[in-house]
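Reply to thread "Modeling small-molecule complexes from scratch"

Following up on the discussion above, here's a worked example others can learn from. I took a protein sequence and the SMILES for manganese (II) ion and predicted the complex. Inputs first:
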Amino acid sequence: MKFAHLSDTHLGYRQYGLIEREDDFYNVFNEIVDKIIDERVDFVIHSGDLFEIAKPSPNALLIFQEGLMKIKESGIPFFAIAGNHDTILRQNALPPQILFKKLGLTLISPNNPIVNSSFLRENDIFIGGTPYISKSQTPLLKSLLNDLSKKSEGFSKRILVAHQGIDKYIPFDYELEISDIPTSFNYYAMGHVHNRIIDDFGQGKLVYPGSTEIWRSNEAIDYKKNGKGFYIVDTSENDAENRFDVDPINIELPREFISKNIEYGKLDSELNSLGSYISSLNNKPILNITIEKGNFNTSDVYKKLNNILSKITLMFRPTFRNEELIIEERYIKDNTSLEPKDLLVESLKSFDNEDISNLAVDLLGSLSKDKFEDSQKIADLFYEEYFGQYETEFKKIMKQESKNKKDDKNKLNSKNKSHSKNKSNNENKSNHKNINNNNSNENIKDSDEKFKQTTIDFK
Ligand SMILES: [Mn+2]
């Protein structure tokens, strides 16, 4: 028996605002669908971020619908979880995958964490999983994983599906430490990390198939090294330790991402050879070009680059390492594009919280289109999500605080005027004491933690 494992297809992503890039993501997906059918797999697992956003465009939905229909017509079941991109902040909101239930997609959700199919039962296979769960809810995530581990007991083949970061693979952006994960499964069908990873873990293999297209330009490095595509997992040819056999199926991406540093002194000759290399390519590439060393007039160099490169690249993204621009470079780094969205996310990095960046990006989107009602709704939902449950506690504290102030005032009034310098100190101390006494300081801390926990480099 064998299955296909893929993830992070991000359908509908219009990278750099370019429709050609949106099409690239679709073309790669279509190619993957054909290969899945060629491989005659018994089922497919998609580990989240099927779509770029939780409310995909009709185009993105249509591309997926067509692909899924082909897979269904070949008699192949499709199991999926929602990733962080497929999830709306609001609780109980449905991910777009739910639309495709009648076309053969089984959504693994909090309500249906286990896939119930006669084929799986006949072959003694357990598939269980959870949609993406944010870092502030790691205790919930851990207990769900442990429940699934218990429920998988007694099955001969046990598969866990999840869309999370693990500290071992992304040390600065994870929800799970590797030691949090139950070791009882034979296959960990992971999503979220965009590089390809195959590791031995627990009683089998832990696998991130990675993104199917280059979603951030720095993913080009892993593409060159490990390729992109999906995995075919063969469960019948186990080795002595019952580890499944995992084979990569590579897809050649339609467009190159080129990263080039050029010294200003060699600008003309380097541009010449770069130009002839680009002319040899089938499709116009995305070019990240850095001009460095030496003093030069940025706008003159930009004009020259634009003359030569604008026609032969789909997009070129220049960086100028000129002493005059050092201050700007603090904001515009190598892997950051000039899109307002990216700059906004970059400038909010200190919050270290993906939800805040998402909020800002959402608000930018709606406010820049004068959609004030939508903006209000977005802000209200965010407030509700973060503070709804703490509101009562806050009110209590505020009430207590105003009472303290009154008390302090009364005390002060009864004292000599020369002591008034200490007023604010006394006030602070007594406030702290009261907050501790009514035990709500932990709740405040939790809501504070929520802001700090999730990291911004979301995938
Ligand atoms: Mn992703």
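What I'd highlight from this example: Residues 258 and 280 are 13 Å apart (CA to CA). The pocket of manganese (II) ion is lined by residues 8, 49, 83, 85, 192, 194, 211, 459 (CB under 6 Å). Questions welcome below.
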